[in-house]
Design goal:
Mean pLDDT: 90
Number of helices: 4
Keywords: Membrane, Transmembrane, Transmembrane helix
Distance between the termini: 60 Å
Strand content: under 5%
Number of domains: 1
Organism: Kibdelosporangium banguiense
Largest sheet: none
Shape: elongated
Protein name: DUF2516 domain-containing protein
Number of strands: 0
Pfam families: DUF2516 (PF10724)
Helix content: over 70%
Length: 97
């Protein structure tokens, strides 16, 4: 009989995957010069980071001994979403005076 904790872990596992896919697709759709304009790594580097992070979220599990790799993938994806993505949006939008 599945427990409440088992359901919660399953939800966490599957909720992280769309976040990773979103980060990868967002990085894929951005202009390459925008990454250098915000003084971050290049577009191919962020595609590798978000793609690798998403693959780690897909391959590894939150609830067993591979949890360390799952967490590393989630952190990589969240760094892009929290730090890089807002700056990319800002630099591509420009001033709206």
């Amino acid at each position: 009989m599945p427990t409440l904790a088992g359901y919660i872990v399953t939800v966490i596992n599957w909720a992280a995957l769309p976040v990773g896919v979103f980060a990868f697709v967002h990085a894929l759709l951005q202009r390459a010069d925008a990454f250098t304009a915000i003084d971050r790594m290049t577009k191919p580097a962020w595609l590798g980071i978000t793609g690798g992070g998403t693959a780690a979220l897909l391959i590894f599990s939150f609830a067993n001994y591979t949890m360390m790799f799952w967490i590393a993938g989630l952190v990589a994806v969240l760094v892009y979403i929290v730090d890089v993505r807002p700056k990319l949006i800002e630099v591509q939008r420009g001033n709206r005076w």
